[in-house]
């Protein structure tokens, strides 16, 4: 797996605390309306003092494989400059809002159509000057079949991304990792973001559902926070029926490196704002120094012939 490299190694001592906002927006069939609502929540996040704001998975589109191709947009690569024109209405909104508010925005995710016709579930992150600083394509596709629960097959329509993603945000002196929803179930990805890319906050736009949400959402977020001793912030759409009846769990949540839930929403539309103090990360890592106690010599997985 290749990894995108953050644009700077974070300096020490840790930066001042900053505010992070999760925008748990309602998502409907109306793409234009979804984008306008997302902007409205982002403006409210800025008014609440946020420096980093996050949108949900598929913020412009119902979470429904039947919708992905119709709603898909072409998206640019990392490094795309604010001066360059682009056709994507979602990117236009993200850039304009980031520039106006001076926030870093992790733009949830939107269906992306690539030059070769493949569709991806992709997240763009934009810096306060409007530059695209990260692009993550959902690496693990949500193909599941839970008897009596839910069946979903993203791979019917989507192709998987092939890298781990993180970007450095100088204004808050923090490297931010980005994964999308099902990616959170794979500890190796989070470990790569934290250990090799230096992420201190892992952000997951995600839309769990009424079967896996109550069972696994909080458990996974707290697990990834604890096993990497990082902050984890996950942003869901609010609970509304998708085109084929997919019902999002909601419960957007921020967890600290000790595994404590700092802030969370219920299932309704919500703006969750909380303070991130990266000093907490150093305290936890000093108290329980698991990163220095790893036994790499005994972790080798051996394949069975
Ligand atoms: N929707 C997803 O990608 C993941 C999910 O709902 C789950 O893992 O459960």
Which descriptors would you attach to this protein?
305 residues, alpha/beta, Nitrilase/N-carbamoyl-D-aminoacid amidohydrolase, 7-stranded mixed beta sheet, binds ligand LQR7VSFR
Folded structure, characterized:
It is globular, with a radius of gyration of 18 Å. Helix 1 (31-47) runs parallel beside helix 3 (89-101). The chain has six helices and 16 strands. The chain has helices at residues 31-47, 65-71, 89-101, 187-196, 212-228, 279-287, and strands at 2-3, 18-24, 50-54, 104-106, 110-113, 119-126, 132-137, 143-145, 151-153, 163-169, 174-178, 201-205, 231-235, 253-255, 261-264, 270-276. The chain has a seven-stranded mixed sheet, with helices on one face. Strands 2, 3, 4, 5, 6, 7 and 16 form a seven-stranded mixed sheet that branches. The two termini are 23 Å apart. It has a single domain, classed as 4-Layer Sandwich (Nitrilase/N-carbamoyl-D-aminoacid amidohydrolase), CATH 3.60.110.10. The protein has 305 residues and is an alpha/beta fold. The longest helix is centred in the first third of the chain and has 17 residues, at 31-47. Helix content is 24%, strand content 25%. The site of ligand LQR7VSFR has 9 residues, from helix 5. The ligand NC(=O)CC(=O)C(=O)O is lined by residues 142, 181-182, 185, 207-209, 212, 216.
